[in-house]
Amino acid sequence: METLSHPVPVTGKPAEDRESFATLLGRWARVLGDETALTCLDHRGAADGRAVTLTWRELDRRVSAVAARLSALAAPGERAAVLAGQSAGYVVAFLGAIRAGLVAVPLFAPGLPGHAGRLAVALADCTPQVVLTTTGECDAVRAFVPGVAVVAVDAVPPAEEREWPAPDPDAPAYLQYTSGSTRSPAGVVLTHRNVLANARQACTAYGAETRTTSAVSWLPLFHDMGLILGVGAPMAGGLASVLMDPPAFLERPSRWLRALSASPGAISAAPNFAYAYCAARVSAAEKSFVDLSRVVALINGSEPVLPATIAKFHDAFAECGLRPEVHRSSYGLAEATVLVSVTDAGKPARQVTFDRDRLAAGSAVPAASGTTLVSCGRPVGQRVRIADPATGEPAGPGEVGEIRVSGPNVGRGYWGRDSAATFGLPPLDPQTGEGWLATGDLGVVFDGELFVTGRLKDLVVVDGRNHYPQDIEQTVEEHPAVRPHSAAVFAIGTGDGEAAVVVLERAKGSDAGVAEVASALRAAVSAGHGLRLHDVVVLAPGQVPRTSSGKISRARCRESYLDGSLTDRRLG
């Protein structure tokens, strides 16, 4: 069995340093002072965005004012939930809670379409003592959380300077609620030690440097990748942070690229779909305003990285100075703060084609045709191993198994839940005492690099054969009548055993008949995967269930299919 170890030093600081994102903010305020720390691009009233900026000193003062207000409302260790839109106020609220010694809970405002239920579940789970928001969202938040103290951070007056107690590095810094793509959202308990280790690991892996690197992001701050990229790494490395609202990106993806162009030495990250979306939606006229020659790293993670997407993105923006080696594929999850592995800097991510049938059977064997996977590189400051998910025994060379992770960035467990089956599994490291995190993801180590093959719970097993849903979804989305990035494949139980169902959205402007589309997809999946589809559900655009971070939720699709709420909306 091969264990992948970190190619960069473990960057978690010793316990006696007693640091947090908030203490580091104070340090940068003294060192960088009037240099810009945070820029929020507001596109609500201006197509090109109105820049709202805070210097390091201004940000530090606003955070201290909020922390002082919180100290009068809650005791250290109590939860402070952030219910706000993407803004400078969100950053101030999050860091203010940490500075006051509270456990921050980064969530979202009640108005996020389709996710009121998830927000209610998270609030009931973490039972916050206080909720932080902004003036414009205050009324909606008060109505959503009656009986809980609500603070509008942009209305808090300045406070006198004071010394804040140094945190216990092993005390919780915040609860990171999972996106709920495969289960009900759970709050991962992340300590100051965990999040600082991962933020520093990210800075090291991406080559970020104080004063010369900017972190540019449209990812929501309540999402693990968005929070570490937009707040954590800037606090750890003294990086300027440039943020925009996710809808601003979706309305006009060129806004993200223009923000990258305006930020020398930029690093950024996005799910795979965003790169395909840019390639398809950014016009030739918009490209004339884009210069990507100074971008340091574009991280592709959070969902399977598709070779075709990488090719389309680079073909579309090579004329804008984009270098192929800038694209870095990664793997991570909230239970490990976020980042686990990433491909090496300075060269394109490796792609390997494996025999599809043998891969489904649990063995990675290179072949001339089959399933092409993109490497997720090597761990950063941690260790990765592949294990049998049932026994925990190490997998053999080239064998597919569950990805397990060990390192200072791995969280302590789920808030209020028994987490023994997921966190701290043996064997323990004799030097650090760290155990292993069972990720629930499947992968293989091939030639020293990690390749992710799918999720354990998402496997479609029909007639004794394993099928990776993303493979089938790729085949489905090749049909011109299927909207890109809209298909979900899952298994259901029938009287004859397990059967496969595909749910998808019809492409805008397509006039193909539902029966015609379903017949073509059944034939394509049968020919390409040897799988008979039990049902094909065609929905209107925007109807396939997604998580709060925008990913297709196979679990919610399956639940909605079984209770009939999904099939009630089918076309045809």
TrEMBL record:
GO cellular component: plasma membrane
Source superkingdom: Bacteria
Keyword Lipid metabolism: yes
AMP-dependent synthetase/ligase domain segment(s): 27-415
Keywords: Fatty acid metabolism, Ligase, Lipid metabolism
Pfam families: AMP-binding (PF00501), AMP-dom_DIP2-like (PF23024)
One Gene Ontology term from the biological process aspect of the record: fatty acid biosynthetic process
InterPro entries (alphabetical): AMP-bd_C, AMP-bd_C_sf, AMP-dep_synth/lig_dom, ANL_N_sf, FAAL/FAAC
Molecular-function GO term, any one: adenylyltransferase activity
Domain AMP-binding enzyme C-terminal: 458-567
Family in the record: Belongs to the ATP-dependent AMP-binding enzyme family.
Protein known as: Acyl-CoA synthetase (AMP-forming)/AMP-acid ligase II
